[in-house]
Design a protein that fits this description.
- By secondary structure, the protein is α+β, with helices and mostly antiparallel strands.
- Helices cover 27% and strands 22% of the residues.
- α3 packs parallel to α4 and α7 crosses α8.
- The longest helix is centred in the C-terminal third of the chain and has 23 residues.
């Protein structure tokens, strides 16, 4: 277990429910609303030797950077080999909590155990024609499989103590957020503790999946709220796939684990994985669960959407993963009736500034600076509304269209 204490600058203050909304009009005191992203990258390819794999690693980073601008916490699955140089361009803005999994051919590790070796110490790279493997100081050869990471935006973490727990090496881990007594009001805060669980359920066979879910069921984090996301590798409902459903034992194990943790799925209609077969199969394997009560769900309205990224699966052979990134967001409206706030993800999108600049009439004259400012404000709101209206339909619409086409094709057969 590792622990990070966020920085607390001068000018900080203590908060309670009476003054919380004064400093944070876009947040709730006791209902945390972090924007959470899950993405199965199918390997970082950070041990790449060939030109093709090096290019793939660059595309993985490009996709991650594109999706990260929408999120506060990012859960990544199937990282495979994890090397320090891969994280260099993220370390300025993100804390990274790693959960790698290495297997030694000469000393195999039982996947049923939850105290598995997390990797060799002092390892170096050995290159052969078939694979890139890791060799420790004693000459023992390891190969990487599974692997998960949790990225936490440093600016978001400023008012929390972060605690990292590994529940199943290479497959399940979590980061808990405990609010500090003294906080910096320039950064997001919450009066409630919460945890984000990153899951990658084994898909080699049903028995391994069931045992992993039984382990997840026993997780105890001592927080007020819990979020669990990742690649579950389980098809729960017939309309979650264009192929076959998962076994009854897997579905029961998943439902039992979520019931024990008192969590419910944030249901989405979008398919999250597209296979490379012809015709391809689509499935909804990547999902988010929350421990919100019914009242909290009505208050913050959690929803899932697929953020746009440069190399999307199914559109070209350059896509590094057959999974779509999946974002858990919230439809929070705190202002008076008729007041609409521009979402933070819109402001961070470079297209927003470009569209506003392109539509702003610089030649028009205004009778006063206030009227000019009001016109500029209306333009920004108009552009932001058009972007929020389209962001749930871009990537998601592509996924849904492919799923519908495949179902029609199967019916024609």
């Amino acid at each position: 277990m590792s622990e990070y204490v966020s920085q607390n600058e001068s000018g900080s203050t203590s908060l309670d429910d009476s003054n919380f909304s004064l400093f944070y009009p876009n947040l709730f005191a006791y209902t945390p609303t972090p924007r959470l992203l899950s993405y199965n990258v199918r390997s970082y390819s950070c041990r790449a030797v060939s030109t093709e794999l090096k290019q793939r690693s660059r595309r993985v980073k490009t996709n991650l950077r594109g999706c990260m601008r929408y999120a506060d916490v990012v859960c990544v699955q199937e990282t495979k080999h994890q090397t320090p140089d891969f994280y260099h361009e993220f370390k300025a803005e993100w804390w990274v909590f790693r959960n790698p999994y290495y297997v030694s051919a000469s000393d195999p590790i039982d996947e049923d155990l939850d105290d598995m070796d997390s990797g060799p110490v002092g390892a170096q790279v050995l290159v052969d024609q078939k694979a890139v493997r890791v060799v420790d100081a004693e000459g023992k050869t390891y190969t990487a499989k599974a692997g998960t990471d949790i990225y936490v935006r440093k600016s978001y973490a400023r008012n929390f103590t972060l605690t990292h727990n590994i529940h199943k090496v290479g497959y399940i881990h979590s980061v808990s957020f405990t609010p500090l007594d003294g906080v910096n009001t320039d950064f997001p805060a919450s009066l409630s503790s919460f945890a984000v669980i990153n899951t990658y359920i084994p898909n080699a066979n049903a028995a391994l999946a069931v045992r992993a879910l039984q382990l997840l069921e026993k997780v105890k984090l001592d927080v007020s709220h819990t979020f669990a996301g990742g690649d579950w590798n389980i098809v729960v409902r017939p309309y979650d796939t264009t192929g076959n459903m998962s076994s009854t034992a897997q579905i029961k194990a998943l439902n039992d684990a979520m019931a024990k943790l008192r969590m419910n799925e944030v249901v989405s209609t979008a398919m999250t994985r597209i296979s490379g077969e012809c015709p391809p199969k689509l499935s909804r394997l990547d999902r988010w669960y929350t421990s919100f009560s019914d009242a909290e769900n009505l208050l913050v309205e959690p929803y899932v959407w697929l953020p746009p990224h440069s190399y999307e699966p199914g559109k070209s052979d350059e896509a590094p993963s057959d999974h779509f990134p999946v974002l858990l967001d919230f439809k929070v409206d705190h202002g008076p009736k008729g007041c609409w706030r521009i979402p933070l993800w819109v402001v961070r999108d470079p297209k927003f500034a470009e569209m506003v600049s392109r539509k702003w009439d610089r030649k028009r004259k205004y009778s006063s600076p206030c009227k000019k400012l009001r016109a500029f404000s209306k333009l920004m709101v108009s552009v932001a509304r058009s972007m929020t209206k389209g962001h749930t339909t871009g990537t998601t619409r592509w996924s849904d269209a492919v799923a519908l086409a495949i179902k029609v094709l199967r019916d024609l057969k």
